[in-house]
Amino acid sequence: MAVFLYLCHMEKENVIFGIRAIIEAIQAKKEIDKIFIQNEANSELMKELFKTIKQHNLNYAYVPVEKLNRMTTQNHQGAIATIAPILFQKLETFIDNLVEKNENPLLLILDQLSDARNFGAIIRTAECTGVDGIIIQKTGSAPVNGDTVKTSAGAVFNIPICKVDHIKDAIFYLQGSGITTVAATEKTEQSIYDVNLNQPVAIIMGSEDRGINPSVLKIVDQKAKLPMFGTIGSLNVSVACGAFLYETVRQRSL
């Protein structure tokens, strides 16, 4: 019931419409999740908005006006922004504090996972398995919206999430902080069951269709996969993530 009530509240409070209002929200450093812009809109004010979006490296998409009209009945001027219902953590501060107080941190990195429901399911599993924090990229990642909140069963409010400009930079920072990075990928012969997860570790999951970016795979400490015994070659990303996290729990409970 609490999650449902929050969703009702969020629908009213977490949407900004109007070009000038969105520009002001960006300049005020609001946690903008995504900006929806009407196809072929090219007014001078819209150009100013687009310039501001680029300067702040924000996630945006061009959509038909019909979609904007479904999102609000107000005069949106061809632009609507959604605001995250949570406050994102600053990576460096979060990691420094975590390493100082936790001898065996467990982190989860999502490399441009784009489906909000998969994101919510992963957050729920992460919270249940004791993950200390989740790291996502500002662009290309699923938003924290109503679908995310609902699918996570409210777990999104219980686990810190860091938003970074580039996943690779986050990985370098983790490695410099003594945290081993393990990528979930089919492009390896090593099973997850052969990886030592009873140490400071960050597990990396890729997008639903492309997996982990090749440039990310080049810099991780280890790669691991789940053994497959059927004719289907892969699992849904949220299911695979659950298997990786529960193997971590198993190893740490021995």
Walk me through what this model shows:
The protein is of the alpha/beta class and 254 residues long. It has 2 domains: 15-83, 2-Layer Sandwich (60s Ribosomal Protein L30, Chain: A); 91-253, Alpha/beta knot. Helices cover 40% and strands 18% of the residues. It is built from 10 helices and 10 strands. It has helices at residues 2-13, 19-27, 44-55, 65-71, 91-101, 116-128, 146-151, 167-176, 214-217, 237-253, and strands spanning 15-17, 32-38, 60-63, 79-83, 106-110, 133-137, 161-164, 180-184, 201-205, 222-224. The chain has a 6-stranded parallel sheet with strand order 7-6-5-9-8-10, sandwiched between helices. Strand 2, helix 3 and strand 3 form a beta-alpha-beta unit. The longest helix has 17 residues, at 237-253. The radius of gyration is 19 Å and the shape is elongated. The two termini are 37 Å apart. Mean pLDDT is 90; it is low at 1-12.
Percent strand equals: 15-25%
Mean pLDDT: 90
Number of strands: 10
CATH C-level name of the largest domain: Alpha Beta
Q: For the largest beta sheet, what order do the strands appear in spatially? A: 7-6-5-9-8-10
Element order, helices and strands? HEHEHEHEHEHEHEHEEHEH
How does the helix and strand content classify structurally?
alpha/beta
Fraction in helix: 25-40%
Q: How many distinct domains?
A: 2
What best-fitting shape do the alpha-carbon axes yield?
elongated
How far apart, in Å, are the first and last alpha carbons? 37 Å
